[in-house]
Amino acid sequence: MSDFQKLTPDNIMMFAMKHYDNPSCVDRKEFLDDMKRFKYLKRLFRKYDTADVLKVRLILNHIIVLANVFGVDASSTLLFFKIEKKHWSTLKTFLVYLHYMPENDMKDIATDVKVLKELRDI
After folding, report:
1. DSSP 104
2. Which of 52, 71, 73, 80 gets the most CB atoms within 10 Å of its CB?
3. Hey, what long-range contacts does 77-80 have (CB within 8 A, 24 or more apart)?
4. Phi and psi at residue 21, in whole multiples of 5°?
5. How far is CA 82 from CA 23, 38, 108, 118, in A?
6. SS3 for 41-83, per residue?
7. Is residue 4 a part of any domain in this protein?
8. DSSP label at residue 85
């Protein structure tokens, strides 16, 4: 069994399964449905990047659900693995807003000022 010192495309699914904790999950399909949330977030971040459309509440909802089923630390790790590096600034802003990531983690990644303003206006 891998100790997950370094996440790779080969072991990411095992990492996700190890940290998945959803008592109401009855089959593999539910797990895979939750994994699709990463794809949805990628799409939402891409839409923000290309069309300047930010669906703040939908993004927050997906991140909160992921944190609920994978745990805050594992979901953050999975998010940074699954989300393209060019969207990390946006992702970090949401995670800091939710207190899912201490601001001193990944200091080299700036927060997105525009996203932060949107979040504060909620």
Report:
1. T
2. 80
3. 77/7, 77/15, 78/12, 78/15, 78/16, 78/19, 78/38, 79/38, 79/41, 80/106
4. -140, 90
5. 24, 7, 19, 24
6. HHHHHHHHHHHCCCCHHHHHHHHHHHHHHHCHHHHHHHHHHHC
7. no
8. G
Q: How many folded domains does the chain comprise?
A: 1
- Residue 30 backbone phi and psi in degrees, to 5: -65, -40
The rounded distance, in Å, linking the Cα atoms of 65 and 25 is 13
| pLDDT tens-digit readout, 35-51 | 999 999 999 999 999 99
List all residues 6 or more positions away from 85 whose beta carbon is below 8 Å from its beta carbon.
none
Name the one residue in this structure whose structure tokens are 């979040």.
119
Q: Which domain holds residue 74?
A: 12-120
Which token pair is 22?
């959803």
Q: CB of 111 within 8 A of CB of 92? A: yes
